[in-house]
């Protein structure tokens, strides 16, 4: 027997069967591949959990030899209150950055205590300007006459006043007649305290202060007919009047 028959020869069919055996072995143990994949997933999740749970703020403490600023560093040597204290951040202390004060605050606290406590002279009040001594013009308007007199009535009033003993005529009202009030004329020597003096064309007539409310705005006239001759009054204040015209009433 030759040597070629003792050494087995490797053919393509043997290689095919060997690969098929390896594939069947891998198919028969699927748990090994799944366990390897799940362990890799857990490893990734554990690394992510470490990243999420790590806090972003890392506490630190100042060194023991860190110089702290004095509490009265910003307070001047005066009793006047200065600006409000400002809070200092720890990062500014670490950088040792000098604080800059504004010019307004510096000017406000630059007064020393001795000068601030000195009394200041009080200025006397200035006298007010002298007002003008010119008299003001009166703005009073002439008051409307309480009663007017017609020219015919003036003629008869002059005849009554032309007497040796000069007297004055007073016009008033009295409670009389069916309507309540009636005109009344009388001679008087002098006017009363509150009588109204009416002067028209040189003729003076007095109006009784008690009758002024009833007579104001009236017109005095003279009426003469075959039966009588008398003074009449045209009064705009009359609300009721009797038929004969002797009495009237006002509201």
From TrEMBL:
Any Pfam family matching the protein: Fe-S_biosyn
Domain Core as annotated: residue spans: 147-246
Molecular-function GO term, any one: 2 iron, 2 sulfur cluster binding
GO biological process, one term: iron-sulfur cluster assembly
Superkingdom of this protein's organism: Eukaryota
Family listed: Belongs to the HesB/IscA family.
Protein role: Involved in the assembly of mitochondrial and cytoplasmic iron-sulfur proteins. Probably involved in the binding of an intermediate of Fe/S cluster assembly.
GO cellular component, one term: mitochondrion
InterPro entries cross-referenced by the UniProt entry: ATAP, ATAP_core_dom, Fe-S_cluster_asmbl/transfer, FeS_cluster_insertion_CS, HesB-like_dom_sf
Biased segments, Polar residues type: 93-105
PROSITE patterns: HESB
NCBIfam families the UniProt entry points to: iron-sulfur cluster assembly accessory protein
Protein name per the record: Iron-sulfur assembly protein 1
Compositional bias per record (Basic residues), positions renumbered to this chain: 133-144
Organism, scientific name: Cladophialophora carrionii CBS 160.54
Region spans: Disordered: 40-144
């Amino acid at each position: 027997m030759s040597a070629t028959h003792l050494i087995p020869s490797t053919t393509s069919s043997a290689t095919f069967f060997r690969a098929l055996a390896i594939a069947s072995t891998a198919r028969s143990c699927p748990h090994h591949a799944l366990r390897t994949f799940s362990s890799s997933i857990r490893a990734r999740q554990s690394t992510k959990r470490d990243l999420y749970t790590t806090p972003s703020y890392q506490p630190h403490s100042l060194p023991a030899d860190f110089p702290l600023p004095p509490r009265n560093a910003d307070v001047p040597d005066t009793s006047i209150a200065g600006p409000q204290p400002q809070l200092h951040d720890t990062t500014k202390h670490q950088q040792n950055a000098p604080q800059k004060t504004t010019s307004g605050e510096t000017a406000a606290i630059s007064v020393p205590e001795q000068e601030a406590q000195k009394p200041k002279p009080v200025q006397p009040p200035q006298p007010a300007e002298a007002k003008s001594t010119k008299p003001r013009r009166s703005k009073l308007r002439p008051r409307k006459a309480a009663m007017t007199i017609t020219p015919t009535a003036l003629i008869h009033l002059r005849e009554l006043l032309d007497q040796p003993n000069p007297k004055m005529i007073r016009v008033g009202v009295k409670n009389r007649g069916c309507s309540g009030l009636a005109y009344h004329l009388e001679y008087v020597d002098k006017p009363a305290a509150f009588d109204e003096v009416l002067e028209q064309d040189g003729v003076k007539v007095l109006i009784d202060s008690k009758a002024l409310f009833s007579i104001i705005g009236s017109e005095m006239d003279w009426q003469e007919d075959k039966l009588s001759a008398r003074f009449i009054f045209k009064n705009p204040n009359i609300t009721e009047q009797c038929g004969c015209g002797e009495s009237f009433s006002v509201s």
